[in-house]
Amino acid sequence: MEKICWANTENFNDAGFVIVGIPDESQSHSLRKGTEEAPLKIRQISNIRDSYERNEKISIGRPFKGTTKKVHDLGNITRDQIKETYKKIFDSSKIPISIGGDHSITREIIKSIPKQNEKISLVYFDAHPDFVSSHTNYYGSVITDILSYIETESSVQIGIRTPEEEEMENLKKYNLQVITPFDIKKYGIEDIANSILNKLGNNVYISLDMDCIDPSFAPGVSVPVPLGLTSTDCVYLLQRIAEKGIIGMDLMEVCPNFDIKDRTSHLASRIISEVLFSSVLLK
Predict the structure, then answer these.
(1) What is the dihedral of CA 82, 222, 130, 105, to 10 degrees?
(2) 1 lies in a domain?
(3) 204-213: per-residue pLDDT in tens?
(4) Which of 78, 60, 70 is nearest to 20 (CA)?
């Protein structure tokens, strides 16, 4: 299978970061189908749009932070292989960057984080809180399903703009902070970034649903919602969080079948690059 263009080592043991594709949308209720195609499409577009051939040599269009980190692309796995695969990654002190698939995959990844670690600080980028509790074990109940694994006081949701009533009740009940696109407009990106960093604990995990970004920047998602984050604001927050140090990240809900000239897949690839090369390796 074609590797993402940011991968620069074939040796798992040499890598600090591991790309994992999980092409599964079995727990999505979206009317738009096709997120299972995202891992392949994002890899393909990364090689087409960020890779240049000159004098029979390949040159990569790099982030300004450079690409000195060692990155291994493990390829694709099934949902049933998540526990085994992520145990290997976490036990090797590597940072997984996962590409879905529907957002319920995040639940399985977080449940695979070693038990000896303290609860995680979750940074959840999404248009939706995914905090339904009347129905569980699907892409709209992710937060409910992982409550025992996260520390809500040091976690935050970013980009939320279309909560259901029961989700609003759950957010209040569990004291989970929400930062909307309007908050960023009101307070400014720098103040928002600093407030997030001051809130987070030590074990920070990022989960990014691409619908957190406005459809004008990311049209190819499974549940698009207007009034979202700009792509630059989203990436700036991701950079700042990655610089603090993360234990992992996933990027979910790209829906290539509904994209426009692969804009969303290309943005997803660039987001992955900015997180990879902003991140520090935690000891």
Answers:
(1) 0
(2) no
(3) 999 999 999 9
(4) 78
Q: Is residue 5 part of a domain?
A: no
Nearest to 115 by CA among 73, 149, 69: 149
Q: Which domain holds residue 253?
A: 12-278
Evaluate whether 259 touches 213 at the Cβ level (below 8 Å): no
Tell me whether residue 2 is in a domain.
no
Q: Which helix (H) or strand (E) holds 124?
A: strand 121-125
Quick check: 201 pLDDT over 70? yes
Query: What tokens appear for 227 in the block?
Result: 């009034």
pTM here? 0.96
Contact 277, 65 (CB under 8 A): yes
Residue 82 located in a structural domain:
yes
Distance CA 229, CA 210 (A): 10
281 and 95 in contact (C-beta within 8 Å)?
Answer: yes
| Distance from chain centroid for Cα 174 | 23
Number of domains in the chain: 1
